[in-house]
Amino acid sequence: MYKIASKKVLNSAVVQMEIEAPLVARKAKAGQFIILRVNEDGERIPLTIAGYDREAGTVKIIFQVVGATTTLLSAKEAGDTISDFVGPLGVATETEGVKKVCIVGGGVGCAIALPVAQAFHEAGAEVTSIVGFRNKDIVILEDDFKACSDNLVVMTDDGSYARHGNVTVPLKEMLEGGEKFDKIITIGPLIMMKFVVLTAKPFGTPVVVSMNPVMVDGTGMCGGCRLTLNRNGEKITKFACVDGPDFDGYEVDFDEAMSRNRIYADFEARAREEACNLLKQG
Amino acid sequence: MAVVPKKNEMPTQAPEVRAHNFEEVATGYPVEIAVAEANRCLNCPKKPCVNGCPVNINIPGFITKIKEQDFEGAYQIISMDSSLPAVCGRVCPQETQCESLCTLGVKFEPVGIGRLERFVADYHNANCKDAPVKPESNGHKVAIVGSGPSGLTCAGDLAKLGYDVTVYEAFHVAGGVLVYGIPEFRLPKSIVAKEIETLKALGVKVETNVVIGKTLTIDELIDEMGFEAVFVGSGAGLPNFMNIPGESLKGVYSANEFLTRTNLMKAYRDNTTTPIMKGGKVAVVGGGNVAMDAARTALRLGAEHVYIVYRRSLEELPARKEEVEHAMEEGIDFKLLNNPVEVLGYNNPEDPRDPKNGFVTGIRCIQMELGEPDAKGRRRPVAIPGSEFEMDVDTVVIAIGTSPNPLIKSTTEGLEVNKYGGIIVNEDGLTSRTGVYAGGDAVTGAATVITAMGAGKTAAKAIDEYIKNK
Question: Which top CATH class is A2-89?
């Protein structure tokens, strides 16, 4: 059993927790993920590591309440326990040799983008962060991004806070204005990452995308997380759990990834409803 | 006394009943049939069966105890050599091992050794309430990576010798392929759990949720945590795909994923939290035991029709004969001498948001014929030009094997692997690293439970000698 050391509600649908998992905290790096189960017989869900405290032995996760498992998890409080917490899994984000980086985060993906921005900041790189949200009510981690970014742009889709528009708008302006990033790292909804890649393409800036597909084991055993890369005209199958979650954005087949992520949409909608009903009954 | 020429039949659920439930197919010998079957054993002086057993169980010894109706005595004899009797009695391919060498088998059917082993283990589990005696500690620590058949065997043998053994498991539950791979209807998970409880009573510690190579490395186990030796039984790894168009469509599973969702994650239960595509028509590609397990699982999940698509003929099917027969009885449709060339999917060009887009609708196959024998002597399947045809299916399960997992190799300096990625070991299971042993699928690639157990046993013996002589 793994104890929830702290819980903080970041907005109406996004929750932050620190989980006591000393072995995971000891090894965790930005860009890696964990898999958890809330209770016995629960499903295994992957969540990217949002931070860690090696001394306290805790790992921070930030999640959006979207399905049955995240609904059950969000109902837990500090001091409660969850059944399983395993990691750190996947390959850490490469920070070596990058002097100027642009981090593009969208929605809850910003929670994962933050430790990546911090890692680059600590490694001495110049960090530009562009973070986008649907509206002002769900803006998260603005101060944290401010602290580790040389330049921060906050966007909202509806213009209810900060600048109005998509994250690709300021990115395009910067690239057209002659900004030369060694790398763009984007973390968020697949459709957003796809358009970040398309925006950067004319300028030839390398783009790293963080994939978050459906997973079961997270150690390369099931192959459920596979995605297709187009490399030099050849199609290559990779497993996000062991080969990723970071991939070269120019190679990823986003349309396929988006299709695969919706495989259990019906089941998930039903399961979430059941979880909500269960919680209402208390 | 005249010899009874045939094995006593194993009672089983009727095919039309068992095809719709996850209860065990074979229900086991009752006492009187077990004793009758034991009495078929000639107790011949040469005991060839023992040599056919990868863990060298004293087979005539335990069968004699059954004849005497001393079933617990029989269990004690088996458990001297096997840490998982109830598992082996169910899933070992006895027909190619112990039973293939049985003296009675020269003229008649061999003694049903596997069925008797299962009887003894089940009798013990049902009737013996005494916990096994925990041996006195010898103060030496050994770490085991993976809680599948090789790891559990190695752990059990070392614990019996007094070692302080810790088993690390990446999943949330111990058992490896015995819990995620082999279906409930062939090996009930309660039986695996019981065998693991027995090992825990012997003093074996099991740490779940630890991925060696990620959470901890082998070097940390040895240098920082005080383990004097490590056994790597991390099992088979990445699933192989066919590299044909359409394999990323929704509804194409690796057998590993399909079976893990069903067995480990309990997708077969009504109140499950694990989604899986079920019902409709299912094609399972491959001809091994895993393919049979996947096909029979699909049927039990509610498929209306299940095909096995295999590129060779019935004769070359690598699965156990008993499994193939069971599958056929249950109505699995064998499409032999066929090879898939493309998985077909739904695509509505008018509406990219059509929810059906990207789901499997069928599979295109090509007919094969058998050509010249290959290096292994198996006749090579050759495609017949122009013979392509399409089958309507909703789900495709690819069961064509696995490649070793690179996690341990990539984080353990000096650990040598062969060109397929399997860990290289000598006859004692020793790797290229002092104090690091390996066995099971991580070494051999996909093989059987009992072969993995044999490797775990060999390594346990070698680890004991290594630590004693240090």
Answer: mainly beta
Is the ipTM reported for this complex over the cut 0.85?
yes
What sign for the dihedral angle of Cα B451, B453, B457, B460? positive
Nearest-Cα distance to chain A for B124, in Å, is 29
Do B231 and B287 lie in a common domain?
no
Nearest to A83 by CA among A64, A71, A69: A69
Nearest to A86 among B211, B243, B266 (CB): B211
Nearest Cα neighbor of B61 from B113, B132, B123 is B113
Q: Which alpha helices (DSSP H) does chain A contain, by range? A: 22-27, 68-74, 109-122, 142-148, 168-176, 190-200, 240-243, 254-261, 265-281
CATH number at residue B257: 3.50.50.60
Of A252, A116, A133, nearest to A184 by C-alpha is: A116
* Candidates B172, B241, B250; nearest CB to A237: B241
- Helices B59-67 and B31-38, interaxial angle, to 10°? 130
Residue B380, classed as helix, strand or coil, is strand
**Cβ pair B287, B319 in contact under 8 A:** yes
List the one residue out of A241, A123, A104 whose CA is nearest residue A175.
A104
Report the C-alpha gap between B104 and B113 in whole angstroms.
12
The model's pLDDT over A166-175, given as tens digits with 9 standing for 90+, comes to: 999 999 999 9
CA distances, B28 to each of B13, B40, B148, B344 (Å): 10, 18, 24, 43
| pLDDT tens, position by position, A38-93 | 998 888 999 999 999 999 999 999 999 988 889 999 999 999 999 999 999 999 99
Structure tokens at B247: 């394999």
Domain edges within chain A: 2-89, 100-261
Residue B391 CB partners (closer than 8 Å, separation 6+): B281, B283, B307, B335, B362, B363, B364, B365
Q: Measure the CA–CA gap between B137 and B163, rounded to whole angstroms.
A: 6
Asked if B248 and A220 come within 8 Å (Cβ–Cβ), the reply is no
Domain, as residue range, for B176: 141-237+404-468
Answer whether residue B276 is part of any domain: yes
* B398 phi and psi angles, rounded to 5 deg: -95, 115
Tell me, yes or no, whether B87 and B39 share the same domain.
Answer: yes
Number of compact structural domains in chain B: 3
Among B170, B257, B355, beta carbon nearest to A224 = B257
Check whether domain A100-261 has CATH 1.10.10.60, yes or no: no
